[in-house]
Amino acid sequence: MTTTHPPATLTAPRPSQRRARMRETIAGYAFLLPWLLGFFLLTFGPMVASLYLSFTDYDLFEANWVGLDNYTGLFSDPRYLKSVQVTVTYVLISTPVKLVAALLVAMLLNARRRGLGFYRSAFYAPSLVAASISIAIVWKAMFVDDAAVDSFLQIFGIDTGGWVGNQDLTMPMFVLLALWSFGGPMVIFLAGLKQVPTELYEAAEMDGAGAFRRFLTITVPMMSPVIFFNLLMETIGAFQVFGSAFIISGGTGAPADSALFYTLYLYIRGFTDFRMGYASAMAWVLVVVVGVITVLLFKTSKGWVHYQGDSR
Amino acid sequence: MKRTTLALAAAGAAAALTLSACGGGGDTPGSDSTGGTVDPDEEITLTMTWWGNDDRAARYTEALELFNEEYPNITVQPTFSTWDDYWTARATEAAGNSLPDVMQTDLAYLSQFGNRNQFLDLTPFVDNGIDVSGMSDSLLASGQVGDALVGIPQSTNTLALFYNPATLESLGVDAPDAEQTWADFVDWSVAAAEAGASLDPQLYGTGDFTGVFWLFVQHLVQEGIEVFDADGQVAFSEQDVVDWLQLVAPLRDNDLFMAPEAVAQLEPLGGFTANLFATEFSWDNFLAGYLADSGAESLEMLPLPVGSTGEHAQFFKPSMLLSASANTQHPEAAAALIDFLTNDPEVGAIFGTSRGVPSSESARSQLSAEGADAQVIAFEEEWADVITESTPVLPEGYGSIEAEWLRLASELAYGNITVEEFASQWMSAAQSTLS
């Protein structure tokens, strides 16, 4: 905002110049206005409101101040603790699995081969639709008894009797759905791989380093900023998984709360039980936890992320 | 004055409802008596919403066309959704004071909205826009929240024990007895499930019915145990819950229920409609849907097993009500629409028993007497004298505690919790919800 004030050491601009600059400023803000309105009315405003509501018993009709009751109540709510357990398990398993798959496929696609454009598109396509409602429905249909997945496993003599409805197979099913949509981080990895100077590999090869050694000492360090970026984005994304959980569990976290993801329980509390204050408290705990995890990741990144031209 | 009448009606709600006593009477008071209250020259647009499937939507569309012929100046804009999303949407609208003018409502949520003055008090319209003469007083009283009449019951249903004669034949067992006790029925189910264990596909006597909260409520009424007290709190004890859940211990403990993992594979069907369970407890108006889903040639219905007093002591529940928004710009038109949908004989014929047996005499008058409709009506007529009780008044938050019951029943089925844990967890959840 201070950009309209020129440094004092300059000679004062002529009035016409100042007018022109003023007009420019106004025009600038005018162009920004749609975004500013959207941000303040639809994002920042509701966030402030939900912070206030998290200290009330708001039930969509009236809000009475209850202090920290919602926050303290979380930790004696078995379903809340269950939702934390489900979500943390999912984040810890799905994020590394997805990133490793994305990096490996990106390295395969980095080679110069025929029809590479096609394969890149083919591997990327699932991530475009993975978050959609229709895929969640298809996914559920694929995992019921005698459907695609079960029939396939029966070839190997494994009869699961259907994954949907089996509380022990719920989490693997969600991890597979996450894994299938590795296209997003893969494209970013691919872009990163293109930036690694080929002379490094040539030099290493000359010195007799094998493929695995080259991967470990060249690819990983050179790619560490990209790995860090993907790790951060995928971790945050995994905490917020909702659509697929909502569809596959029928909006309830079924079977037996094994698909009770954090955001799904938040939705149930808010929109099924109408306990909006409680749901708001849940949302703020999630914001703080994800924030803390992000800060921690940044802190650890100093130890393992190497930026090119960095003197360290 | 009307208010006093209703209060009296509520007080005397224990009176038995007998549909058979309401036969005949071809007069159609509905639409004529309301004509004066809506200005016929004013162009009015009403919004309306209900829950249900495509079949119900088609029936409503037909009914609303008839309404439009009767009131050419009123345009009704309908929307509908499934039950799962219905109350979420209504609550959000209510928070923004934008409820539809007329909406289908359910007993479980009536007080939640009624207590917050979201619904129009229809008391002034009783017999002055909305004809309730063909409806029993105790039934009408179920639309009451506090001093206000916030819903007009559209239809009634009662719980029944369904059985599939074809499945019984495969099992080689006789149908359960109408005068059986709950324990008798469990014994019967054990025998049926044991007979079905060697068949392919394996057949079962019944599903775990203790997970149906309404059935538990009905059982408490049979035993003369108060369900909810006047303050809207739980009046029965944790032990009552345990006793109810333990009723099926011979089935649950011996794996004579179908595994929950396997039941989940049947969706959207259930064990009964997949023709794998010989029996199921459900509302009698589900008959038509069950016939369609199962493809069964015939399904039969029995009253519930008797309580320890030897009485069935069943009640009629309004299966749905119609309410108007407190914020409607056109209360007279909204009342006229509710009256038309409640009383018009042609509307009654359009819906049949798909919403339950119509609450008003005139709506029942032209009901086609064939197929599932006829069977449901015949069932209610045959067993009219065992329907001696009235539906307990449901507290605010009933919808939530019922959902919690269902959730814990699923946890119990998966073996994640014990019966005792079910009872104590449900009790503490109910206490925090109802406080």
Q: What report would you give on this structure?
A:
The complex is a heterodimer of chains A (312) and B (435). Chain A has 312 residues and is mostly helical. Chain A folds into 2 domains: 2-53, no CATH class; 70-304, MetI-like (MetI-like fold, Orthogonal Bundle). Chain A has 13 helices and no strands. The model of chain A has no long low-confidence stretch (mean pLDDT 87). By secondary structure, chain B is α/β, with parallel strands linked by helices. Chain B folds into 2 domains: 2-7 and 29-156 and 320-385, Periplasmic binding protein-like II (D-Maltodextrin-Binding Protein, domain 2, 3-Layer(aba) Sandwich), CATH 3.40.190.10; 159-315 and 393-434, 3-Layer(aba) Sandwich (D-Maltodextrin-Binding Protein, domain 2). Chain B has 19 helices and 12 strands. In chain B, strands 1, 2, 3, 6, 10, 11 and 12 form a 7-stranded mixed beta sheet that branches. In chain B, strand 1 (44-51), helix 3 (54-70) and strand 2 (74-81) form a beta-alpha-beta unit. Mean pLDDT of chain B is 87; it is low at 1-36. Chains A and B meet through loops of A and helix 4, helix 12 and helix 18 of B.
Please give the radius of gyration of chain B in angstroms.
Answer: 22 Å
What is the CATH C level class of the largest domain in chain A, in words? Mainly Alpha
Helical residue percent band of chain B: 40-55%
The H-level CATH homologous superfamily of the largest domain in chain B, spelled out, is Periplasmic binding protein-like II
Q: Into how many domains do the coordinates of chain A divide? A: 2
Report Rg of chain A: 25 Å
What fraction strand of chain B?
A: 5-15%
The CATH C-level class name of the largest domain in chain B:
Alpha Beta
The largest pleated sheet of chain B is described as: 7 strands, mixed
The domain count of chain B comes to 2
User: Which whole number gives the mean pLDDT of chain B?
Assistant: 87
Q: Biggest interface and which pair forms it? A: A-B, 23 and 27 residues
Sequence stretches where pLDDT stays below 50 over 5 or more residues of chain B: 1-36
Report the span from N to C terminus of chain B: 33 Å
Elements of chain A, N to C (H/E) = HHHHHHHHHHHHH
Helix fraction of chain A by DSSP (H/I, runs of at least 4): over 70%
